[in-house]
Amino acid sequence: MSIPVETKTRQRKYPFVDMKIADHTVLNSIEGRFICTECNRSRKFFCYNCYIPVGNLGALLPKVDIPVNIDIIKHKKEIDGKSTAVHAAVLSDRVRIFTYPDIPDYTKDDDVVLIFPGVTSVTVAQLFNKNVRLNTENNYGMPKGHNIGTMLRRRLEEIVEENQQENGEKKYTFTTLPIKRAVFIDSTWNQSRSIYKDKRVRSLKPVILQNRFSQFWRHQRGSPRWYLATIEAIHQFLVEVHVNAWGLNPSYEGLNNLEIAQAFYETVTMVASSHSEDMAREDPYNGQYDNLLFFFANMYDLIHKYYDHNELKSYRRPI
Ligand SMILES: [Zn+2]
To answer: Where along the chain do its domains lie?
Structure first.
């Protein structure tokens, strides 16, 4: 007996169902193409050369307020119109895109990280722990002229501070995070290895994200199922930064269907807000960056309207 299509569909969880993504069906009502005000080329929703929306879409688009600057290095062979990197630059003012080999010199900045899975890569959680540990070490030293009373008082203040942090009190702000900029490589699995060979890129501290299954429909030969589209990787990175700095709102369920590795949850502190709907920039994570997936979710829906999920090669890659 064959399983009815409807049952099959229901078994698979729709990845974006509980995310806080603005109504992207507005895109479906846009007809025709528009001229980009910068380069005069004809475009549908946004210009993938100038990274701006076209027509009246600018007034309808959500803007995403992110705590870390993002640089994306794209391979010159990567087809502009197919890349999801542009979504980030259109939806946020803190995203820049460079075409390799024309990239900035990062050698003088030590608070810039490269998102890349390598043997020496550290996790986002490690970036935060290291910072906490360094602070504690600094406070332990007893400067000249300080007596034991001062030291005890210091230690007490420190304990209060540690507890406050455990209770999710705001220790970090958008401007005091241990990372100021993150660099992403936007290319296929194989191209990214060739960019990584560049000394300027290699000198950056590599950071590995927690595994999460990609929902990208575009098939890439030889890439594993957790090789994320650039926009998914940026979203995952920012979520990790956010939960390490400000915790996760326990009433938020948007991450549940993303199949993120268990290790991610081991680093997350649940921090309840007085209002479960709170999502100011330093409130516990409640979907603040989900709108980065505005175009991605819309394209996902469109593709799934025409193709059966289980027939799409991309989702049948080995894990
Ligand atoms: Zn343009």
So the answer is: 15-316
